């Protein structure tokens, strides 16, 4: 039964950006760097070194040479780990998984992974998304104005907005969650808002949460994503509180 009293909503289960919101792509950088230098470059210019999730992801437009990807050995225990997110995908050349190298490059000819010395210098593949985490502490309304001002044109068209989040695709959930984890505040504003008696996503996305309170407490009318949540989810909060926020660039 829904009430008009204070209400804190926590939705368990995976949370993902709506299918039309988060876009990922691979960027091939031809500059030859060590693995750690390549990782730093990707993190400063894009999102991170590329994670391969499935065979089709390997279409990275490489010429006939190898390039760094995000797979590497951890300092302790020597387990293989991706620089960004996790993936079970492996396509080793024969016996390469037991080789002495601690960083992985991928061949353009046969799409095979090879363990290499991390100090070797190769071109590399970065992963990029259209999410923009803003580490400024703003109210929800200020965050909305900030996102919409990013890349806005003289004609008034909006290139960016506060992100919408929905139950859905796991890959998109990964990108949203990874961005939220980098925030300086414990929660991050997203585009959920209660206005004129209804809940809505400010970017016009379909709202897929039927259990939102029809009469929310006045101090719980804006949506935020928490950094630390066991199963994923978002909470309703006071719109006047100050938090980091997550924008996205429209397609």
What does this entry look like structurally?
- With 251 residues, the chain is mostly beta strands.
- The protein has two domains: 24-127, Mannose-Binding Protein A, subunit A (Mannose-Binding Protein A, Chain A), CATH 3.10.100.10; 139-249, Roll (Mannose-Binding Protein A, Chain A).
- It is 13% helix and 33% strand.
- It is built from three helices and 16 strands.
- The strands form four sheets. Strands 9, 10, 12, 13, 14, 15 and 16 form a seven-stranded mixed beta sheet that branches. A four-stranded antiparallel beta sheet has the order 5-4-6-7, covered by helices on one side.
- The model is unreliable at 1-20 (pLDDT under 50).
Key features of this structure:
251 residues, mainly beta, Mannose-Binding Protein A, Chain A, 7-stranded mixed sheet
Q: Summarize this, please?
A:
With 251 residues, the protein is mostly beta strands. It has helices at 35-45, 140-149, 170-181; strands at residues 16-17, 24-33, 48-49, 66-73, 80-82, 103-107, 113-116, 122-129, 131-138, 160-162, 165-166, 187-195, 198-201, 222-226, 235-237, 243-249.
């Amino acid at each position: 039964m829904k009430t008009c009293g204070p209400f804190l909503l926590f939705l368990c289960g995976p949370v993902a950006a709506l299918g039309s919101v988060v876009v990922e792509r691979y960027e091939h950088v031809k500059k030859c760097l060590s693995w750690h230098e390549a990782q730093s470059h990707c993190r400063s210019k894009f999102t991170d070194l590329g994670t391969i999730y499935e065979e089709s992801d390997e279409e990275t437009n490489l010429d006939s040479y190898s390039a760094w990807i995000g797979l590497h050995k951890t300092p302790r225990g020597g387990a293989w780990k991706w620089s960004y997110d996790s993936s079970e995908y492996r396509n080793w050349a024969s016996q390469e998984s037991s080789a002495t190298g601690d960083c992985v490059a991928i061949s353009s000819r046969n799409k095979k992974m090879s363990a290499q010395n991390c100090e070797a210098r190769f071109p590399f593949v970065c992963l990029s998304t259209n999410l923009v985490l803003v580490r400024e502490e703003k109210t929800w309304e200020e965050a909305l104005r900030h996102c919409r001002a990013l890349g806005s044109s003289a004609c008034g068209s909006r290139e960016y907005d506060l992100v919408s989040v929905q139950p859905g695709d796991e890959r998109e959930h990964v990108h949203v969650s990874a961005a939220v984890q980098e925030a300086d505040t414990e929660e991050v504003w997203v585009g959920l808002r209660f206005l004129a008696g209804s809940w809505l996503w400010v970017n016009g996305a379909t709202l897929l949460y039927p259990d939102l309170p029809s009469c929310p407490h006045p101090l719980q009318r804006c949506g935020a994503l928490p950094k630390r949540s066991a199963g994923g989810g978002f909470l309703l909060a006071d719109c006047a509180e100050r938090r980091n926020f997550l924008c996205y660039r429209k397609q």
